[in-house]
Specification:
The chain is an alpha/beta fold. It has helices at 11-15, 67-79, 98-105, 123-133, 147-154, 159-172, 188-202, 227-237, 301-305, 312-324, 344-347, and strands spanning 35-39, 84-88, 113-118, 137-141, 177-183, 205-210, 241-243, 253-257, 263-267, 280-283, 288-290, 299-300.
């Protein structure tokens, strides 16, 4: 169901949905938002079929927010109740000196949790300096352990580098390290069990994500490998699973192996949408605020950050309004769904 504000620009209608005066980020459905995902670049060294096109024009460096601008945005968001930040891309490790941004974010009052989502190709070289900067939580994207299927999905080689990055991060001391796998029919049937065994053996938490309509290619619902199919495969061929108490605002539903050796999560965006509990907002690499991964509207934070007029108050109002205008859910299980004109790599994973 689309939120009324997404369908009108009538000032009288907009004024009826003015956010209440509050320091907290709450939308018109009562959902409190404390989780900010920040894309630091749209560049990537892979071309995953479910994320981005093979031929793509990337943003000029001048179009990206600087680290100082990102830190300023985070300080304002933290004053509104945001306490969790996740750095994404594109591939965030392609942004030169990323550890310097981590150093700037760690001491911001109110920020208690900083994570990073990466494809892992550059992780072995950067793990130590990121850890020293204060980063502790990592999500590494890895859809398969088969080199041929890795290349088919990512349109590049590099599986060995991802595995080396995971090994380096583990040795440095990161924890928890989560492995994210997109479940696409035709691939997941072969890869669910090997990935589950690999993560159990290495102490990683495995998360499967149902294939969503956010890439460059035409999305076909019949290619979704559903959460229950994943759980059935693991329970049959690896170890039985027991549900565990999960954070209701987290996208993943977690399960523990019955022998106590590890956990598995499923992010069932298609078969079990979690929009009613969503607590996330996004900042794109070019400085746009998005209140949903599938949002059709954006707010321009970069223009405020570069206005030179002490924009914190205006930024706070922009963030509050963006969250207040959030719709009820993404609708991609209905005929009403409209695919965003941005693909995942330019929104932020």
């Amino acid at each position: 169901m689309r939120h009324p504000l997404q369908l009108t620009s009538d000032p009288e209608v907009l004024s009826a949905f003015r956010p209440p005066p509050s320091a907290l980020l709450t939308d018109s459905f009562g959902r409190r938002h404390n989780n900010l995902r920040i894309s630091v670049t749209d560049r990537c060294n892979l071309r995953c079929t479910y994320c981005m096109p093979e031929d793509v024009t990337f943003l000029e460096r001048s179009e990206l927010l600087t680290f100082e601008e990102i830190a300023q945005f985070v300080r304002v968001a933290a004053s509104l109740g945001v306490n969790k930040v996740r750095l994404t891309g594109g591939e965030p490790l392609m942004r030169k000196g990323l550890h310097k941004l981590v150093q700037m974010l760690v001491p911001i009052p109110g920020i208690t949790d900083i994570g990073l989502t990466t494809n892992g190709l550059l992780l072995a070289e950067q793990a130590a300096e990121l850890f020293d900067a204060g980063l502790r939580r990592l999500n590494v994207s890895l859809d398969t352990l088969d080199p041929g299927r890795f290349r088919e999905l990512s349109r590049r080689d590099g599986l060995d580098r991802v595995l080396a990055g995971l090994d380096a991060a583990k040795k440095v001391g990161f924890g928890p390290i989560k492995v994210n796998a997109v479940a696409i029919r035709g691939f997941a049937e072969h890869d669910v069990v090997p990935l589950a065994r690999y993560c159990r053996e290495n102490g990683f938490e495995l998360r499967f994500i149902e294939y969503m309509p956010i890439g460059a290619e035409l999305w076909e619902r019949n290619k979704v490998f559903f959460a229950q199919e994943i759980l059935d495969l693991i329970g049959r061929d690896v170890c039985s699973l027991n549900p565990t108490k999960s954070d209701p605002t987290a996208p993943a539903v977690d399960y523990e192996y019955s022998d106590g050796n590890g956990r598995v999560g499923v992010i069932a965006s298609v078969s079990r949408p979690f929009c009613e509990q969503c607590n996330r907002l996004r900042l794109t690499a070019d400085g746009k605020v998005r209140n949903c991964l599938f949002a059709l509207n954006e707010a321009d934070a970069k223009s405020l950050l570069r206005s030179g007029n002490s924009p914190d108050t205006a930024l706070a109002e922009m963030i509050r309004r963006s969250v207040w205008e959030k719709w009820a859910g993404h609708d991609f299980n209905t005929a009403q769904f409209v695919k965003p004109n941005r693909t995942m790599h330019s929104i932020g994973g």
